[in-house]
Amino acid sequence: MKFAILALLIIAVIGFFVIVWKAAKDWRWYQIVAAIFTMLMAVTFMFPVAGVLRSRSAWNKVYEELSTRLAESEEKQKKILNGDPSDPTAGEGVTVLNLKLSKLAIEAGRRWRNLQLQGVNNNAITLVRAAAPVDPLLQEDPADGAGAAAAAAALPLIPDGLVVYGFAEQPQPGLNVPVPTFFLGEFRVTASAPNQVTLAPLGKLEGPQQQAITSGQASSWSLYELLPLDGHEPFIADGSEADADFMFGRVDDELVNRVLGKRVSPETLKNYLRDGSRSTTDDPPMSRWVKIEFLKNHSFDVDSPEKRSALDGGFFDGNGRAVDSRLQRSEAGPLQFKSGVQIVVKEEAANVLRDEGVAKLVDTYYSRPLNDYRFVLRRIRLQLTELAIRQEELKYEEKVLQAAVDATVAMLTTNQTVKLNLELDLAQTQVEKKSISDYTDKLTATVNATRAELTRLYQSNQNLEQQLEQIHRTISNRLDAVTLAN
Questions:
Q1: Where are the beta strands (DSSP E) in 324-444?
Q2: d(CA 47, CA 4)
Q3: Which of 75, 142, 219, 323 is the most buried (most CB within 10 A)?
Q4: What are the two backbone dihedrals, phi and then psi, of residue 388, each rounded to the nearest 5 degrees?
Q5: Helix, strand or coil, per DSSP, at residue 264
Q6: How many whole angstroms separate alpha carbon 416 and alpha carbon 426?
Q7: Which of 273, 277, 238 has the alpha carbon at shortest distance from 257?
Q8: Is the pTM above the cut of 0.85?
């Protein structure tokens, strides 16, 4: 290629001089000089132009390659940021993940992980954390931020007086960081250094908590400024999406059984495993959610006319509309739903929309009622206090009952002795009664015989009396007769 271009160049030069020689008789000298000078300049600058063109061609190739790579990188960045709807395996974008992470961070508050238990002295629990590596570049140039870094490193690990919630950490399969698995109690920070913190329990620790701390089973701690919020997503299997059978996605049975299997009742475990599945007629109304399909365009006014802070009475008014400006749609106006759109709402709301002819019911799902652990812990603490009081009452009642039982046993023993004595007395009484009965019969027979004898003697005496009276009358008559005769 090079030789062909050189040959063409030589032919062009020769042709130029031939033309100049042929036109010399008609041209003037300055025209010939100008033409020759132009030709020489063209030949001279042809090589730099060729180099520039060659370089430009190379740079064009680099530009095209970089443009292609830029477009590919921008497309990859767009997919990384927003996800790829056409690729289910790509997962969610960084924007969505950052939003979820920010939401979790706001809900969880500040948290301190991987704190090692150093010692327990009465009610003082000391935790330490390994010092973070210091960047030597920051130490060399304090003007570039090392002073601020050193000042931050000198701050206490946790602010003094802060109330925190302690959890025991344990490694889990497939995770690079330990996961909180056991609640250790509510504590107040009594002393804090950059890499050490001392805690004191806010109340009496329960037996399992006290044992886990004192026995060293809870060697690794996590401290939370706020109690974690309950949710449905943590128990959904990786890659599972909401479908017609599962409102939130398929529940990871292995995860639920591993985390909750031996810690909750069978009924509670069943509720976790059924979360998001189709409901049954036995489910309570508060756990029933209904998927509806709008039959016509419909809108909801989700902003309350009240304007106040959430601290003045909550985030929502009595009708469930947002009163906090951070939750209101403001200029976006009412929430619009087009015909054919499907959403999941509570059963009572679905029934209202169905009665109004706005939507139809598609399916009903079971949604596990979420726990507010702040109130759960308080309720459990109150229940434990009530149970402790009830236990003391039962112990007192047990003592009273035991005393009554002892008195009853003693009384039964006494009564048994009395019964034996009475039985002996009864036997003796029966013997004596028989003897008395026999003696009575004997006396009765004697009395009857005596009475009969007395009756006989009385009758005999009557006869004798009559005889004596007859004799006396006879004698009297004789005496009267004798007297009259004289």
A1: 335-337, 342-346, 359-366
A2: 15
A3: 323
A4: -65, -45
A5: coil
A6: 15
A7: 273
A8: no
240 in Cβ contact with 249 (< 8 Å): yes
- Looking at residue 310, what DSSP letter applies? G
Q: Cα separation of 371 and 380, whole Å? A: 12
Angle 94-108/29-82 helices, nearest 10 degrees? 40
pLDDT by residue (tens digit) across 137-159?
A: 334 444 445 555 555 556 888 98
Cα 356 from Cα 300, distance rounded (Å): 14
φ and ψ of 215, to 5 deg: -80, -10
User: Residues 199, 164: contact at Cβ < 8 Å?
Assistant: yes
- Tens of pLDDT, residue by residue over 351-410, are 988 998 999 999 999 999 888 777 777 787 788 788 889 999 999 999 999 999 998 888
Q: What is the dihedral of CA 412, 418, 419, 423, to 10 degrees?
A: 170
- 467 by Cβ neighbours in 10 Å (0-12 / 13-18 / 19+) ranks as exposed
* Other residues' Cβ atoms within 10 Å of the Cβ of residue 142: 12
Q: Residue 379 corresponds to which tokens in the numbers above?
A: 């309720």
Cβ atoms of 300 and 334 closer than 8 Å: yes
Residue with tokens 């128990």: 235
DSSP category for residue 235: G
CA–CA distance, 85 with 96 (Å, rounded to integer): 13
**DSSP letter at 278?**
B
Q: Which residues, 6+ apart, have CB-to-CB distance to 310 below 8 Å?
A: 323, 324
* Closest residue by Cα to residue 343 from 284, 300, 283, 287: 300
CA 242 to chain centre: 21
Please tell me whether residue 88 adopts helix, strand or coil conformation.
Answer: helix
